[in-house]
Amino acid sequence: MKNPSNQSQAQQPQLPEGFSTETLKTIGVIAILVLAFMNFSVVVNLMINIMIFIYGLVGRSFGLAIILFTFLIRLLTWPLNAQQMKGAKAMQDLQNDKEYIAIQKKHGKDREKFAQEQMRLYRERGINPFGSCLPTLIQFPILFALIPAITYAIGSAPLSLLKLSRSLYSFQDAAALVPLNSKFLWMDLGLPERTVILGASIPILALIVALTTYVQSKLTMPPSTNPNDQGAATARIMSIQMPIMLFLFSINYPSGLSIYFIASNILSIVQYAMMGKVNWRNLLPGGKQ
Amino acid sequence: MRKKILFVTLFLLAAVLLSGCTGATAWPGLSANGEVAYLAHTNAVYAVNAKTGAKLWNFSGEGGGFLNMNPSMFVTTPVIIPDGLLVVLDSGNKHVMYGVDPNDVSDETPHIEWRFDQAKGHWIASPLIVKNRMFAPNSDGNVYVLDLDDGQSEKDAIKVIRLSASSGQTDRLWAQPLTDGTRIFVTSLDHRIFAISLETYEVLWEKQLDAAIPGAPALGADGMLYVGSLAKKLERIDPATGKNESVLGQEIKDWVWGTPIAEGDNLYFGDVSGNFYSYNVITGELNWDLKLDGAITASPLIFRDQILVATESGVIYAVTADGKTEIWHQPAEEKSKAYTTPVQAGDYVLVAYLESDYYLVALDQDGDVKWTFTGK
User: Fold this and answer.
1) Over the stretch B61-77, which tens digit does the pLDDT of each residue have?
2) Taking CB atoms and an 8 Å limit, are A159 and B124 in contact across chains?
3) Do B275 and B250 contact (CB within 8 A), yes or no?
4) Residue from A256, A192, A250 nearest A55 by CA
5) Distance in angstroms (rounded) separating the CA atoms of residues A65 and B178
6) Looking at CA atoms only, how far is residue A195 from chain B in angstroms?
């Protein structure tokens, strides 16, 4: 009599040789990305309608709508982010692995051989080297679509309002909703934020974006003891580079987008904290990573 | 590691470039006298010889400052004021209004005679000039009243008429006011229309309509105000009392954006689905409606014995008073979009295009191109 588990395995469709489930995941993510960009306006319109639906629920505050929308996005991408953390942790552990360090020492100068050995280790440990960056890729279309979505939804200029009229689904009461209340705290969400302090025009919100991005990247940077850890070195550079880039980005784009960045950073920290992955010591001066 | 950094950098650059796909946020502003056309297009205001299409000068504001954090944007229709100056409005982050002298030009830039920087929102509406007073509606919900004869180089508003709702929201004011000689009428995206005394600047009445009003009202032959709204309606309003009624409800198929134009007993206006209407204000009847091939956000232009209508498709239609229509001008570039009201300058009709290599096109009485202007 055959073993039932073996029988069930035999019934499963077999992947072609060289194909792993990780490869399939990669293809899946790329397919989603391609579909998203091919139907960019569909994605943008969907986002606009979700945000406006939330806007109606929260008492006509578009700032709150963006924050809740960010929360929704975070919730939907939670499994992806968790996988990203898992992948990053696996890569980090590998960097501190004795066998990996030994390979680095032995084949450090022979790139080809080193890459072969590295891939062997990945296979043996079941690590997908793209496991940590694929979930990030899936967020790109969200960000790309969010920029026009916020710009159109706020409708702070004629062309945006005209585009909004074409984006609303039929169930939305456009006549009653438009114009959306673009005021949130001290800013107009449809315009880049500036605060005049002592006669100088200061982009306060862009600075908060940079600060929260920096704090988020520092807090979520995994510890590393390997001085040759390339991942840790990259993370250190990124923790400086990303805040600068997002600052430059935020000063030129509607402040609604900055609200998204800030909310996203804070929610990311919360998610890491809930999973016990926050490294608070990284924020202290001279704190070890 | 370098590859990863390069990857992230490329991503961010791509994000910036892709987000740029949102493109311009407003369409050009265009005005003209017999000899010169003034075009506010994206980053500059251009003065163009209306007979030849040659650029006379351009004005691009006072610079974007550190990291170009405050870039200028010019989309509001420039206004020629009685003393010969031209009023141009920067719709960028600085919200500055300039009075420039079009005849005092050095390095292809006109001299700034005065500036006004007290508005808190961006400029979409053109100001209205009544004698020596300027009424400038702003997106911050205020109408700024300026004295054009005060001789100041840094102007102060002599009156700020606040039209904002008490909730703290701003009533975006996007349309140039209309005057009947004793009052000005200001429309708001916050669904309201206001009558303001020209003498005291007091709000005489305000009326809440069913939806946002992006265009200005028109004065019909019956002495009543007519204004379209995003409620797909044309409203008739008594200029003395503000009493209103919808005169066309079911017949209008989409948002009415542009200001209607009155010609004799008739009003002409379009909607954003490309429907064009003729309404007789005396009989209260819809004369006819036509379906054109693109959104109509501009006001029509009466040119000789026909009505010219610009549509988003870039095509300019000629419509006769009895509703016969023909394509009067087809742009060379399919991507060209015409959202701006065409203007007449001498024998030519000028059309401002968006998303086109041609910022401005001059057409003769047959709709044939006489010259084009590319901003250079």
Assistant:
1) 887 666 666 678 899 99
2) no
3) no
4) A256
5) 36
6) 11
